[in-house]
Amino acid sequence: MKLWGEDWYHEYGNTAIISIDTMEMEEEKWIEFYNGAGEIPQDCVGLAFLGLRRASENPGIKNVIFDFSANTGGYVDTLVFITFLATGYSDLDGFDRTIGRKITLHYDVDANLDGVFDERDKESVYSQFKYGVMISKSSFSCGNIFPFIMRSLGAVIIGEPSGGGSCQVQYASLPDGTSFTLSTSQFVLLDPLSTNPEYNNVESGCPVDYPISKDIVRLSTDGVEYDGLDYRPFFDMQLLNEIMNQ
Fold it and tell me: Closest Cα partner for 164 from 114, 128, 126, 201?
C-alpha cells in the first residue's frame, strides 16, 4: 500500500483498483451516518461503496480490482456487503460438523445505504464491471474468503495464494511467545466451487489465475541483512491493467 501512497483508489487504463486492508467496521460512524449526522465512513464498506461509485462515474473504466493483498480479515458481514455490491450475490456456504450438514447463510444487504432492505438495493449492484481480486499470503480470514467467493462468481484472482483462515478465527500463543491463529473446527466456510463440502473448505488458501512473480532481494533492518521478497510488481498498475484486459 505504501508504494501507492495513502490513496486507496487508483485508475490506470480502463482499470480501477480499490485497496481494502481490513474488514473492520467503524460502527459508531455508521450509526451517525444513518441518523443523518455524518458522512459515509471510510472503512471497508465505505471504501467499496465509494470506490465502485467513483469507478462508475468514469465511462472509460471497464475493470475493477479489489486489492486484498494486505487484508487481514474482520467481520464477515462486511465481506457479504462488498460481494453483493459487486455481483448481487449475498450467500455464504458453510459446513456444520456438529450436525454433518451443509448450511447456506443468506444476508439482506442495504446496498444503496438508504436504511431500508428492499428491491431497490438490487439497482445499486455494479455488475457492469469485470472483476479481479489481488491477494497474497497476507490475505487472511475474510481476506481469504472473499477471493474464493468472487472466483466462483467469475472474478479473476491475481497475485499469490492467500494465507487461509475462515470462520471464528481465534488467536493463541505458546509459553515461548510463539503466536498463531486458527479457525473453528466445528463450522467452516466452504469454497463455493467445492464438490465435497465436508472437506473442501477455504482453510488452505485461495489459488490464483494470474500469479505475479516476486524477486528475492537483500534487505537490511537495524544493520541486520536478510533475504526478503520484492512485492513491487503487485503495485505495477500497467501490469494489472494488462492482466484484466486478457
Answer: 201
- Model confidence pLDDT, tens digit, residues 38-97: 899 999 999 999 999 999 999 999 999 999 999 988 888 999 999 999 999 999 888 887
Amino acid identity of 177? G
For residues 226 and 220, what is the distance between their CA atoms, to the nearest angstrom? 6
Q: Which of 209, 246, 231 is nearest to 14 (CA)?
A: 246
CATH code linked to domain 2-244? 3.90.226.10
* Range 105-142 burial, b when 16+ CB lie within 10 A, else e: eebebbbbeeeeeeeebeebbbeebebbbbbbebbbbb
CA distance 183 to 11: 36
Span 7-33, pLDDT tens digits:
899 999 999 999 999 999 999 999 999
Q: Are 105 and 145 in contact (CB under 8 A)?
A: no
